[in-house]
Design goal:
Elements lengths: L10 E2 L2 H9 L10 E5 L7 H4 L5 E6 L2 H10 L7 E3 L7 H4 L5 E6 L5 H10 L6 E7 H8 L9 H7 L2 E9 L4 E2 L6 E8 L9 H11 L7 H4 L1 H4 L4 H4 L12 H17 L1
Parallel strand pairs: 2-3, 2-5, 3-4, 5-6
Antiparallel strand pairs: 1-8, 6-9, 7-9
Helix pairs in contact: 8-12
């Protein structure tokens, strides 16, 4: 079963790493009884997930891999969903019940997987995943870091992130051209930001649209002519300096201006 470029496949070939990823899921305190594995491929990680107490469901887009899993994993009968994860209605698939997400994610869609998680955050208390190392670092990076950006802010608004460990290229077949890393995201107890969630996303993306410019320039489209651009020190900063809380305040300023317009 050769990896296919069209699916961004790089099969994990290390039993030790697969076990370590499976063990990275929280052992208690997170309320879900179903686990969703994205892109199981040949089942290196799957075999360890089947040893866990949660009901395991796998979503695989590659028809050949679905046939492979059906043949070699009898325990998965009735629990294999042949579908594109990004196009799957996760709420319907899991009967509106909470579920964890895990996987050696295809790197070409890893950011989209995170956005899918955010869209379904009401049902996803936890995610553990293998990402391109650069993406993993960006997701969990703190304000002031060169890697801090849109995905950092949006994920950290709703989840606590942990960088767990890096994975060598040789642990995959075929080896990827980039380094890899595993992170864990645990949903925050308080999901209320204190601002309009949709507007928050728009403001964050606008702020980082020209990340080398100060906010007084990038936020003009929302606050043109408003004295607040000169009065508040935050507008002298570049977006990578702002915390989630700063972006919440920024969103509320934009909301007030929008309501007055």
């Amino acid at each position: 079963m050769r990896a296919k470029k069209s699916y961004g496949q790089h099969f994990l070939n290390s039993e030790r790493i697969a076990q370590r990823i499976a063990d990275s899921l929280q052992q208690g305190g997170i309320a879900y009884q179903r686990l969703l594995e994205v892109g199981p491929g040949r089942g290196m990680l799957t075999q360890y997930l089947l040893q866990r107490p949660e009901e395991l469901v796998v979503v695989e887009a590659d028809r050949d891999m679905v046939l492979f899993l059906n043949k070699y994993f009898e325990e998965l009968q009735g629990h294999i969903v042949e579908a594109n994860f990004l196009k799957t209605d996760l709420t319907a698939l899991n009967q509106q019940q909470p579920f964890g997400v895990i996987g050696n994610f295809p790197y070409n869609i890893s950011s989209q997987i995170l956005f899918k998680m955010l869209d379904n955050r009401a049902y996803i208390p936890e995610l553990v995943g293998m990402f391109q190392k650069e993406v993993a670092e960006r997701v969990v990076s703190a304000p002031g870091s060169k890697t801090y950006g849109v995905i950092s802010v949006l994920v950290q608004a709703y989840y606590d992130g942990e960088y767990l460990f890096g994975v060598d290229k040789g642990k995959f077949t075929p080896p990827p051209k980039v380094k890899s890393a595993v992170i864990r995201l645990t949903r925050k107890a308080n999901q209320e930001l204190g601002c309009d969630h949709r507007l928050f996303k728009v403001v964050v993306k606008q702020a980082f649209s020209q990340r080398r410019k100060m906010l007084r320039n990038t936020m003009k489209s929302f606050l043109k002519g408003d004295p607040i651009l000169q009065e508040e020190a935050v507008f002298n900063e570049r977006p990578e300096k702002l915390s989630v809380e700063d972006f919440v305040q920024l969103t509320n300023w934009v909301a007030v201006r929008k309501d007055k317009a």
